[in-house]
Design goal:
Layout lengths: L6 E4 L2 E4 L2 E2 H8 L3 E5 H18 L3 E6 L6 H10 L2 E4 L2 H9 L7 E3 L6 H10 L3 E4 L2 H14 L3 E6 L25 H12 L4 E7 L10 H21 L3 E5 L17 H13 L6 E9 L3 H4 L3 E13 L2 E6 L8 H5 L5 E3 L9 E6 L8 E8 L7 E5 L20 E5 L2 E6 L4 H4 L8
Parallel strand pairs: 4-19, 5-6, 5-12, 6-7, 7-8, 8-9, 9-10, 10-11, 11-12, 14-16
Antiparallel strand pairs: 1-2, 2-3, 4-13, 13-14, 13-18, 15-18, 16-17, 19-20
Bound molecules: pyridoxal-5'-phosphate (PLP).
The site of pyridoxal-5'-phosphate has 18 residues, from helix 10.
């Protein structure tokens, strides 16, 4: 296997950046999430410089759902990132770490009235609607609070993408966004409101997309739609929100595209129209989540047992689907290495599974590894996105801690939950 971007090898041992992985295991135990801060910085830097090569006013709003650990949010905020949030909880996190209101994009297909009130009170930079009823509700709340809303419309252009069906979001049978006719109606109605500044257009067609073509298609659709808005309503939008969805390489077969390629193919479609149908000072917004943090994280886990049933050799580890649900939920492949034997040849085939009482609790099946023994430490790769954020306490398992590595430095950025934490919100049991 070619060396993963966050690893180094020194004296025949595996390191994350300049920190020996086995030292982390000894100090913090397992299961343990490790995140490389320099990898996040590198990914952000690449996307930022690629995008600003094509348009000076680009705002990268990190999609908090990918991994909302506060130290990660702070790191990205420090680099200049805005926030893409989809709940009042994520909005709370953005405010907590000091993201300025106008760098926050609030999305969501079913925002509650109280979430809308929060978003409007904070005066988020862009509030994207997904239904006509939501528009009315926003108008009512904004009138009551006497606050102007920066409004955008998420449009469903029926763009197919090749990804897992649970993370494809831009086709007409999905719940997301407004169809083209309703979206046009929404802009017309919104323009009549004194409380609404109609500013944005938004698409997000899905996640873990590995080719640029669907983004090109969605951007062309956006431009055609915006042309119609300009011609018929004299509306010039200034917040062009292209969503997230840029994929990463989970398996060696995954062919990804670079941020350069993305920007080269997508940005000119938009920038060509800035100054005509789009405002001269338009901001192009990107909402990447997985792209920024996905391959910066690994999950370390210890082997409890090795056993064989029929033809299947099971490696049973101390992390479970409560720590990383992607394999169970999306059939996602996360590569695995045996940390203390990473340089040995793969001579066996194992199914690697956790302690949860569910047959879905399997990380990989029939997977080539060196001969595995009790006490070995496995690293499950590319767990930085949608790992901890989708984790749970199922089977009363405390969630794993997270350490952030930067060069030689190690910081515990989330402690291991205790058993008391699991029951913290339970009342009246005595
Ligand atoms: N924006 C929106 C509206 C989303 O729903 C999502 C995730 O599904 C994202 C951005 C981030 O997607 P990704 O992590 O694939 O970049």
């Amino acid at each position: 296997m070619s060396l993963h971007p966050i690893f180094n090898i020194k004296n025949g041992e595996l390191y994350v950046e300049n920190v020996r992985v086995m030292d982390l295991v000894e100090k913090y135990g397992t299961p343990l999430h490790v995140i490389s801060s320099n990898r996040i910085k590198q990914k952000y830097g690449e996307l930022y410089s690629a995008s600003t090569e094509y348009w000076k006013n680009t705002l990268i709003c990190y999609a908090y759902k990918a991994n909302p650990t506060l130290a990660i949010l702070k790191l990205l905020h420090g680099l200049g990132a805005g926030a893409e949030v989809v709940s009042a909880g994520e909005l709370y996190a953005a405010r907590l770490i000091g993201v300025k209101h106008d760098k926050i994009v609030f999305n969501g297909v079913s925002k509650s009235p109280s979430e809308l009130s929060d978003a409007i009170s904070v005066q988020v930079g862009l509030l994207n609607i997904e239904s006509l009823t939501e528009l009315k509700l926003i108008n009512d709340i904004a009138s009551k609070l006497n606050i102007q809303v920066n409004l955008g419309v998420r449009i469903n252009f029926d763009v197919p993408v090749r990804t897992h069906r649970y993370i494809s979001t831009g086709m007409k049978f999905h719940k997301f966004g407004l169809g083209v006719n309703e979206a046009f109606e929404a802009y017309k109605l919104a323009l009549k409101s004194k409380r609404i500044r109609v500013r944005g257009i938004h698409v997000h067609i899905g996640s873990q997309i590995l080719t640029v073509y669907p983004f090109v298609k969605a951007s062309n659709n956006m431009v055609s739609f915006a042309e119609k808005l300009y011609e018929t309503l004299k509306l010039r939008l200034d917040l062009i929100d292209l969503g997230g969805g840029l994929g990463i390489q989970y398996s060696l077969e995954d062919k990804t595209f670079s941020s350069q390629e993305y920007c080269k193919n997508v940005f000119p479609i938009i920038t060509e129209k800035i100054g005509t149908i789009f405002d001269d000072e338009s901001i192009i917004i990107l909402e990447p989540g997985r792209y920024l943090v996905g391959d910066a994280g690994i999950l370390l886990t210890r082997v409890n047992y090795v056993k064989q049933i029929g033809d299947i050799k099971w490696v049973l580890v101390d992390a479970g689907m409560n720590d990383l649900i992607r394999p169970a939920l999306y059939d996602a492949l996360h590569r695995i290495v045996v940390v203390n034997k990473f340089d040995l040849p793969s001579v066996e085939r194992y199914s690697v599974s956790g302690p949860i009482c569910e047959s879905a609790d399997v990380f990989v099946r029939d997977y080539p590894l060196p001969k595995v023994d009790i006490g070995d430490i496995l690293a499950i790769l590319d767990t930085g996105a949608y790992g901890i954020s989708m984790s749970s306490q199922y089977n009363c398992r405390p969630r794993a801690p997270i350490v952030m590595v930067e060069g030689e430095d190690v910081k515990l950025i989330r402690r291991r939950e205790t058993y008391a934490d699991i029951f913290m919100c339970d009342l009246n049991y005595r």
